[in-house]
């Protein structure tokens, strides 16, 4: 589903485990389970647990360019990049995992799927 190397997924999950958001079980029937209070964990918390990766694919290529044109473009665009990142992070802080779970369940119901989100995918 993620179309990436399993090592990448393991690293992501390890970061979430370190923060106490998930736990793993080995062996047959094992896997990852959410173990946090979904109403208290936000997307910003997840973002931080993953090491605060770059949010924008576009940005200044170099911090101190040798080209005066690039320097001028960087100076003109950096405030917009900063504003966009701040807006995204603020929104991340408003969205809890329980909100996402409710939305997924609603979408599944609308599509006529009777299977909900796994029972072990919520906080106890």
Automatic annotation (TrEMBL):
It comes from the Bacteria. GO terms for molecular function: DNA-binding transcription factor activity. It holds the Pfam family Rrf2. GO terms for cellular component: cytosol. InterPro entries: Tscrpt_reg_Rrf2 (IPR000944), WH-like_DNA-bd_sf (IPR036388), WH_DNA-bd_sf (IPR036390). This is Rrf2 family transcriptional regulator. It comes from Lacipirellula parvula.
């Amino acid at each position: 589903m993620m179309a990436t190397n399993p090592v990448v997924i393991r690293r992501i999950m390890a970061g979430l485990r370190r923060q106490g958001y998930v736990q793993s079980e080995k062996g047959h029937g094992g896997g990852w389970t959410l173990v946090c209070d979904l109403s208290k964990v936000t997307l910003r918390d997840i973002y931080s647990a993953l090491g605060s990766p770059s949010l924008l694919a576009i940005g200044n290529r170099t911090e101190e360019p040798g080209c005066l044109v690039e320097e001028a473009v960087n100076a003109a665009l950096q405030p917009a990049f900063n504003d966009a990142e701040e807006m995204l992070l603020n929104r991340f802080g408003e969205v809890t995992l329980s909100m996402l779970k409710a939305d997924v369940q609603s979408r599944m119901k609308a599509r006529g799927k009777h299977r909900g989100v796994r029972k072990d995918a919520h906080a106890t």
